[in-house]
Design goal:
Pfam families: Na_H_Exchanger. Helix 8 packs parallel to helix 11. The chain has 17 helices and no strands. By secondary structure, it is an all-alpha fold. Helix content is about 75%, strand content about 0%.
């Protein structure tokens, strides 16, 4: 593809990315998550409608944007969550979802509706936390009691399926898959050691502090280097790069140390200002509208199963700690899925185990969850000052988990 065509595609995507927040600013009553407008804009400028842009022209930038999505998702998570009530309930809810998914998809496989048992079952348990972070943040839903449980539920619904995919589906050789996971663990350990070195006050720490602003931007450059390295090394096994980006984000705040607030601002600028919108517009461009139109009932079936399998356990698990409205919001948020659903559909098609109509319907259902569920959750949201006063605010030591 020539440079001119690539620039034309990038220009069309830039127009969509710029117009999305503008429309939300001009029409404040339009309580639609920005990602919905980006996906819809991708469909419009993509090859199936106006044909102003082609996915292949911006695929490398979209891959980097996907890496930033998972990096920032991991960055929002406090590793202490699993020791808190929110983390334990999130793990229980995901486990219940997994059991339900295995049972429901097993029945569909017995009926001959589904052929790729494992990918479809895992798709029912995913949460698009990386996709949801900008939505939740811009609507101030990551703070307070509700925010703590939303973060925990999103983390469980994204990290645990990624681990399962990497082991069971990401690579044909199971031994290599386990080595890949071990490599990610080593990465986390190395970054943890690096954080201690940074706090030791040596020359390296001084260089990072002195050169993190103006033209050097050393912390941001090393973050981008880490992401590009992961994407390059795992080019043929993209899910492992996603896992690495997610884990890297989890330890990045600790690695940054005192520079964490500064680095967070830089990541927001680079990610949400440029790369992440490209990924969402690209995702809209790749949606197979014709296949979805040919099997609308499958799409609605998968959509209903995603809401039931992933959302209903949240209603039950959070009894006693969240109000009914907040439990509904938690169920809607945790049932929202897209990036991993796309990846699972691609794996099923590549392995020849998933029917093409099921792959298209599964992706379409994931898109529908992004279009509908966060919008309803946002519409139900109330400012923190209006929350039930009987529930106390999170303890000071827990606020990092939701800020």
């Amino acid at each position: 593809m020539d440079v001119g065509s690539a620039l034309d595609s990038l220009l069309a995507i830039a127009v969509v990315a710029a117009l999305a927040p503008l429309l939300l600013g001009l029409f404040p009553r339009l309580r639609v998550p920005q990602v919905v407008l980006l996906l819809a804009g991708g469909i419009v400028v993509g090859p199936q409608v106006l044909g102003l842009a082609t996915p292949a022209a911006v695929e490398p930038l979209a891959d980097l944007g996907l890496g930033f999505v998972f990096l920032l998702a991991g960055y929002e998570i406090d590793q202490r969550l699993h020791r808190q009530d929110a983390g334990r309930r999130a793990l229980l809810a995901w486990t219940v979802s997994l059991v339900l998914a295995l049972g429901v998809v097993g029945l569909l496989a017995w009926l001959g509706v589904v052929r790729a048992f494992v990918p479809v079952a895992l798709a029912m348990t995913t949460t698009a936390f990386g996709t949801l972070v900008p939505i939740l943040r811009e609507n101030d839903m990551l703070r307070g009691r509700l925010g703590r449980y939303l973060v925990a539920g999103g983390a469980a619904g994204e990290l645990l399926p990624i681990l399962a995919i990497a082991v069971f589906l990401g690579i044909g050789n199971r031994f290599v898959a386990l080595l890949s996971l071990a490599a990610v663990v080593v990465l986390a350990v190395l970054l943890g050691v690096a954080s201690r070195v940074m706090r030791a006050g040596n020359r390296l720490a001084t260089v990072f502090v002195e050169r993190q602003h103006e033209t050097s931007q050393i912390t941001l450059r090393f973050t981008v280097l880490l992401l590009v390295l992961l994407l390059a090394v795992t080019e043929r096994f993209h899910l492992d790069a996603v896992l690495g980006a997610f884990v890297a984000g989890m330890v990045l705040r600790r690695w940054a140390g005192p520079s964490a607030p500064v680095l967070e601002e830089k990541l927001d600028v680079a990610g949400h200002g440029f790369l992440i919108p490209i990924f969402f517009v690209y995702s809209g461009m790749t949606i197979d509208l014709r296949a979805i139109a040919e099997a609308p009932l499958r799409l609605l079936l998968f959509f209903a199963l995603m809401v039931a399998v992933r959302g209903l356990p949240a209603l039950l698990v959070h009894l006693g700690v969240l109000s009914l409205r907040e439990r509904v919001q938690t169920g809607l948020v945790t049932a929202t899925a897209l990036p991993l659903v796309v990846a699972l559909a691609q794996i099923g098609l590549r392995n020849g185990t998933m029917l093409p109509e099921n792959a298209a319907a599964l992706v379409g259902a994931g898109v529908l969850t992004v279009l509908v569920l966060p919008t309803v959750a946002v519409a139900l949201h109330r400012p923190a000052v209006q929350q039930d006063p009987r529930h106390e605010a999170p303890a000071p030591e827990d606020r990092r988990a939701v800020e």
